[in-house]
Records
---
Amino acid sequence: MPVIHTWRSAGLTHKGKVRARNEDAFLDRPERGLWAVADGMGGHQAGHLASQMVIAGLDELILEGDFDEQLRQVRQCLHWVNRRLGDEMTVVANRADNIMGSTVVALLLQDKRAACVWAGDSRCYLWRGNRLFQLSRDHSLKQQWISEQSISPQEASQRAGANALTRALGAGDQLKLEILELEVRHGDTFLLCSDGLYNGVSDEALGKALSLHLPGIALEHMFENVMRGRASDNLTGVVIRQ
């Protein structure tokens, strides 16, 4: 029985104005109901290869069975990639820059069910009823300080090491993923993005772009907004809507 695809999507990535190489990667597979963004750990050994390994692993999934089974396959794939990244680090263990890691945020959609799976500070947003919701919570020291010490985001940002990640693929033997499941409503629009995009644009501008009808046009507006600024990091986004 043929599958009816009700989701339209588009993905875009750019190295920005400062970085010499783009260490971001994305997956855009509306026919499978799977999308993802990965951000290689900047400044470390082969960050661009790490993000590509994450996306390639997800892209190889066949995704059979019901929603719960497909979600299990996504999680299993990311744990497998985490082990592969650990193996790659072992190969270059004698080098000073032997860290090879990546964030990931993935979105799985089937009928009325959705699941956001992530590790790191790449984000998943939902535009619903003319309101912007951040579905994912950053795995960073900054977010940890905000949550545990009840300090403001501004104060947390000023502390040394605020951007350090507390979770990422390749960061350790045991990968701890966070998962949020929700019921999809008519008119929902999702955004997956790396920190280079959301740090360079306001929530108001993100919402304004996501209110546009076509995913590709929405992304163009976001990227134009970021590129008018410093654009000091790689930026990547994927927009998904019915």
---
Amino acid sequence: MKLQSIMLGALALLLLQSAVLAKDKREYTDSFPLGECDFASVGENQYFPLQPGREAHFNNAQCVAEGECTEVEELVIRVLDDTRDVTLAINGEATTVTTRIVEERETANGQLVEISRNFFAECAASQDVYYFGEEVDIYQAGVIVSHEGEWLAGTDAALPGIIMPGGAFLLGSRYFQEVAPEVAMDRAEHIAADLSLEVAAGAMEGCVEVEESTELDRKSLSTKIYCPGAGLVVDDDLELTFVLEP
């Protein structure tokens, strides 16, 4: 009986390991129906609003207060009035998409760390928000020292990814947010839905959780929570404090 129990335990462990491996082997979608989209630089995706003039402020004050973070980090995300035209091949034809520029400005202990200008457009048919590239300025002591992570769809084999799907939030969905080989290959997996939480900006319901990773660094992992109407609310240790609406 003892031997049988050991064998059953070993079999259960093997099945669990097989399930984990099967999950890890599920592919991330990296090809999207761009040809079916009429793109707009202003969008209504409930988790990723593209409204010019919108400004969202984040910090990690809670993490610092709990003694788990040593630096005071702040992030400001602005949906600019500016747009950028991105030209790429869609269905074999050169196509120009007008994207909205969203600026992210990050500081640590009051010192500028990074400014990125991200290019997004929403597919009218699906409300999927596509990511077309970014410009990156990384700072040290007030001086730009790097542009690591810059990419642009239509250049060096880079293609758009999806930053946030429209319609239903399907648990288990996996897709690439950036498709820029050897430069930017961020990807997302839907891991939770119907969440309720409270941050400095207020109480939120109907929120969803996305786990982000990258092919370029297997150890890199981050978690984001988005809420209807509010968009991004939690970015790892950063939490939404307030939003300035246009």
---
Amino acid sequence: MNNMSKAEYFRKYQPIWKKAGLIFERWRISEGLTKTLVADKIGISRSTLTKFERGKYVRDRKLIHKAYIMVQENHNLSLVISSLKSQQIQDIQIAFQYDGGQRIMTLHNAALRPAI
């Protein structure tokens, strides 16, 4: 917060927090995932997840944000892998599109690593 008062800090960042939280909430709902499931995967309480998705102040916001992205990636990857279970997988590239950009992962002989 440096030289900003708490009120100024919240006024400045809450619209950003609210937009990010809404994006995560819409994704979670569209995938049919419950708050309890996502909160458990992130390692936070359901009430903290609710505050995060509503754009309220939560401690460790950046860490929760990154963990939520990991939940998205793992969920999407598990959907891809389950759809390919009956096929022999050699190499496959999977692109995840998020509001903050794109992340590409490569599945190579059952080992997942970032594409270069």
---
Amino acid sequence: MFDNLSDRLEATFRKLAGQATINEVNIGIAMRDIKRALLGADVNYKVTKKFVEDVREKALGQDVVKSVSPAQMIVKIVSDELTEIMGGENKPLNLTTKKLPAVVMVAGLQGSGKTTFCAKLARRLKKSGKHPMLVAADVYRPAAVEQLKTLGGQVDVPVFSVEEQDALKAAREGLEEARAKGIDVVIVDTAGRLQIDERMMDEAETLKEMLKPEELLFVVDAMIGQEAVNTAKAFNDRLDFDGVVLTKLDGDARGGAALSIKHVVDKPIKFMSVGEKVDDLDVFYPDRMAQRILGMGDIVSFVEKAQETLDIEKTRKMQSRLLKNEFDLEDFFDQLQQLKKMGSIQGLVEMVPGLNKMIPKKDLDDLDFKPIEAIISSMTREEKAAPEIINGSRRQRIARGSGTSVQDVNMLLKQFKEMKKMMSSVTKMTKSGRKILPQNLPLDKLLKR
């Protein structure tokens, strides 16, 4: 997501890096490049035009502080404007209601990831202390109800459905069931449309009138680019929804939808889906997304995700073992499991400033935990604690047990030995008071077949 846009914006800022002052000429060149970058990312033309005009006006009206270069000043202005066009500030989910349950109605085109989002939202709400229930009001798509039941089972959330092909009945009776069971949030999955279908839109309007949802969320696939914005506008004209959910942002989305949709429909982006797992759902923060687009990372989100998913006690024990130089393959396996819980590697790398430049995306695409997990799982406890005892016959047994080759086992053991040596040297320097960050930790080789 945004890779191409980020690269082109950074190239523009580099051209300004050697400039002593901001003037009509260098700003004109920079704005031309930024305009091309935004249009190349499939950003709405009107949004692009307004964005460039606003940045130009603010840039020419700025006195460059002596300690700040023109390039840094432009980066700051562009960051502020990107934040503004994406909504300015985070708009949290509004579940305030005098009478429970609060209702979240979810609408969108078929294939947008709407049903999966419902389960992800239920998972998120449950982790925050709520007691959600899913209602299957998508009664037309084959297997939609079964899909929601399967997903509901994965997140351990009840799912209500009816036998009849009647969305209004499913929603009405689901709401009654929720009240009877003391459920505090009901998430209603409505039928996805293949296009703006008049009959289906009428049904959605009727559902909204009957349910009176605290939140009506429109789910849109960011992969379809500018068409996502057009679809959102058509839905909003009929349903007047409360917020947008962008899905499939971990794919090859160019980012145009995220940068255009708020301006076009004047509704906030509330969530973004960045993977296929039930935990791969993030709250949308415009300022943090602007920083990621500009290659500044998003450390705040990274820390929040770590706090949500990592086992603090295990992490403390691992740190203690590192300091004592006792880190073994069992510890490494545990750390892989914790890392996987935090979501896609690509998403995590984008959150750390500069890391996406150190590790090319093509290398991340090749990362695969499964062979490593299989190899370590095929080892005995003694072998994990003391890899040096693994001789030729043991390597053959481990390779057979893990479905890999002896060469794969050799590579894992070699790279782990190098990594442990690196960790040992870093630990010694840390104890001596010197702070150092290893530049070439061989983790990328370790994770690639």
